[in-house]
Amino acid sequence: MALNVNRNVVDPFYRYKMPRLAAKVEGKGNGVKTVIPNMVDIARSLDRPPTYVTKFFGCELGAQTQFDFKNDRYIVNGVHEASKLQDMLDIFIKKFVLCPQCDNPETRFKILEKKGIITSRCAACGHCFQIDMRHRLTTYIIKNPPGQELNAHGTSLTKRQDKKSERRKKGAENGNDKDEDDAFSGTAYEGTMNNSTARDDDWGDDDDDDWGEDVSEEAVKKRMKDLTSGVANLAMNDDLEKTETERINLFHDFVKKLVDEGKDEVAKKDKEIFADAERLDVVNKATIVLCELLFDDNMVAQIKKFKRVLVRFCHENTKAQKYFMGGFEKTVELRRDKLLAKVPVILKVLYDEDIIDEESILDWAKKVSKKYVSKELSEQIHKKADPFIKWLKEAEEETSDEEEDGVELEFDDRAKISSLQEKKEDSEKEKTPENNKTSNGNGADNAKDEDSENDVDIDDI
What we know:
The protein is of the alpha+beta class.
């Protein structure tokens, strides 16, 4: 029986279907395991490699996973019911398949290995978003990106069995009936293997990692590069577990390092700065740090210089703009002698450069706050900003008046009827000799006659 990929949708004609997950328990004792025979079909329906789903089950259950690519067998150690795995599959679909904008499963991964993040784009609505990097599966996805051959996702059970058979064959040829692997075939060792919650499936097969045999300079560099990437991913995950204050301090250190290298370079590295703030989940409050590190006595010119960086954080983000205004007050406090008199000019530049919206500035002006600076200094800053706030309100009122005037210029049907009636009356007057006579007479009498005629016609109507 086919299920909807998004099981929250109850429409029977929903176009995105997947087979119901099947689970088969094999073995006994310490060697018991659950095989998912239709994992390939499920993964094909979700447009994800079957190893991703199997690994996800392993992460959620704290169990080892094994792949047999030749026989399409995907295994999770231990006994697990099909209904339980089906519910976990729904969690995987929500986290790694569905688009948060339109809830369609037509998403494609894009791995940014250097930044250690995974982005996804929806082919249905075009929405781009970042995958939540706090889940352990993301580390495996980065190491094994989509499009890679399945055999590169880890050592297959079939491959390991073939190697074991080859070693036994060589041992028989050499007159040694026992294979070296048989020395570890005791019950205690098998129990350790099955009950372990190690994340690497092949930790017991050291001889399968043939890259360690190459000791050339090029191979060493390649391995160091891989290790560096892995350490970066682990550091990123650890950072997200820290408190917000600690994450803001990490962002502060990152930006300060760039500033020390040269402020000209900071203006060009807006993407890297924003990506680090996203990685640490401090995009909104990061604007306070930017105010502290990027601005000095020449703040007016520096706003224009770092416009790209500031717009990347503040564009259509009212929270970031609110924190920016707090950072602005803090900057004025640090350089009071130079910047206090320039407050209206600074606000005008922020407004003209589309960094801070009009609504955010007016909201800030409504209330004097002592959250970032003393109440006395905040009152002084607001007082200095009064001329610009007054100008901003007047400009807003003029705009609203123009819009109202435009509404009054609209005509209704009655206006059209009255204008047609007046034209008809004028044509009748031109035909009568009395009107000709009146037109040659006094202008005032003519106006009176027209008024009286108009009054009569209106009554008639």
